[in-house]
Design a protein that fits this description.
The complex is a heterodimer.
Chain A: H1 5-23, E1 34-37, E2 60-74, E3 79-93, H2 102-119, E4 133-141, H3 145-151, E5 153-167
Parallel strand pairs in A: 1-2
Antiparallel strand pairs in A: 2-3, 3-5, 4-5
Chain B: E1 12-16, E2 25-27, E3 31-45, E4 54-69, H1 75-83, E5 90-95, E6 105-118, E7 127-134, E8 142-147, E9 150-155
Antiparallel strand pairs in B: 1-2, 1-5, 3-4, 4-7, 5-6, 6-7, 6-8, 8-9
The chains are: A alpha+beta, B mainly beta.
Amino acid sequence: MADARIDEVIDAVAGAIRTWWAAANGGALPAGAAVLANDLPDLNEDPQGGDAAPVRPVGRFVCVLPAGSDHVGQDNRAEDLDEHRVAVVVVEWFDGADVPDLAWVRARRVFLDSLWRLLRNARAEPPVVAGCWPAAAAVGEWYDPAVLRTDRAYFGSLVVAYREVTENVTAP
Amino acid sequence: MSATPKLGIKCKLYYNTGSYGSPTWVEITKVGDAKVKYQWKSATSLTRETRVELSLKTALELGFTFTLRKDPSDANYLAVDNAAVDDTVLDLLVLDGTNATNLSRGFRFDAQITQAGEDQGPDKVVHVEFEAVPAISANVPQRAVVTAGSPVFTAL
């Protein structure tokens, strides 16, 4: 059975991020890093503690999640204009004992900024998502100060809206 | 209960890939905005019998303007786009429903594409605007009304 279109978009975005990130890091993702499609690490992971306490994940997570779809309208008599939105969340726990300093946060913002520019680029050839173009891309959160203080983690997010002209296929 | 209103999205544009007498109607599907215009010219007469200016219809201006989503991989799009840059005459059937749905109405005429243009703005999906006008040919334009599942043509 074919995937829902939103899942194809999510997989394409996650793949583009992996390719871009690996190319910027000598051909492989950094140690502990992961790009997750349709998944999010547990933000309530306990800090390092005794033998029974779970270990805080090490490394940067980029999570690609569905954020809604719209039927924008009819483009022509044969095709519709659809929009699929994906949320991209960057999560990384600080591996020190204290609250991380601003320099640590700003370095993660640079990464989020680069992701934003990668995914919003309508000039990319081939496009990030085959058959689609980015219609809008907004950074929702450059960082969450509450998560930073209580969980000692960086949390940033953006939403990208991809549009496509598509025939209205209804077969399951 | 009144009939279902005619919807623009369900109107049809066909072109003939067969002979005029035995047409093969192929639908041009990626039509966006479209307008059929049929407007009469008239000749006026002013005499002393009345101060009202009177007129009679003389010639009918028939035209069809439409947009197509630009798709060079679509042979039907290419048929129109190529006709915009040469003297090709297309046998067009313009209907407000399918050519098999009774009571669909419209026109059939040999047409030349006399105008084309496209907005290539950075935020646009490119659609090409075309204008089709009746051409001098061996076949006069016709009114088309679908009856018993097939178009019936009446010369204008």
